[in-house]
Write a structure and sequence with these properties.
Layout (H helix, E strand, L loop, with lengths): L1 H16 L4 E2 L7 E2 L22 E10 L3 E2 L3 E2 L3 E8 L1 E6 L4 E5 L3 E3 L6 E5 L5 E10 L6 E2 L4
Antiparallel strand pairs: 1-2, 3-11, 4-10, 5-12, 6-9, 6-11, 7-8, 7-10
């Protein structure tokens, strides 16, 4: 059942990525395109309810060199990464993995251990958007034994 749910969610995300771009009739020359909109993370699990205190937005840009892995970490708040260049493989600890290419969006897991890895030969460039609150860390590294 979980595999079916994951497959349906993956289909919905892929289908949404083919949403055609369209011109804004009120503003000539401006083209808009919905890249992704989902209530689920990249594994198909539902995102948690939004935080209850005053929101804060944080935006970070990452460059991950070839053949480099990020440390295992988790996020206490909802966030999403847009892949500007390269290809990123994201691994859920003890579970699923998925590749994200240039132009795709990674809707991150919340409170689940995971990490990303650049297995390619060119740097991966990401812009990550966090919907967080003041003083909440953007990521928490897993303690090493």
């Amino acid at each position: 059942m979980r595999l079916v749910k994951f497959s349906l969610t993956l289909f919905a995300l892929v289908f949404a990525s083919f949403t055609p771009a369209h011109a804004d009739e009120n503003h000539p020359g401006i083209v808009t395109e919905l890249v992704v909109r989902s209530g689920n993370d990249w594994t198909g699990s539902p995102l948690p309810s939004y935080l209850s205190s005053a929101p804060e937005v944080a935006v970070m840009r990452f460059t991950i060199p070839p053949r480099t892995a990020l440390p295992i970490h988790k996020h206490p708040a909802i966030n999403a990464a847009y892949v500007l260049d390269g290809e990123l493989t994201v691994f859920q600890e003890g579970g699923i993995q998925r590749n994200f290419k240039k132009g795709e969006v990674v809707i991150e897991m919340v409170e689940k251990w995971h990490y990303g890895m650049n297995q390619g030969s060119v740097p991966v460039e990401l812009v990550v958007f966090y919907a967080t609150t003041k003083d909440l860390p953007l990521a928490i590294r897993k303690p090493q034994p």
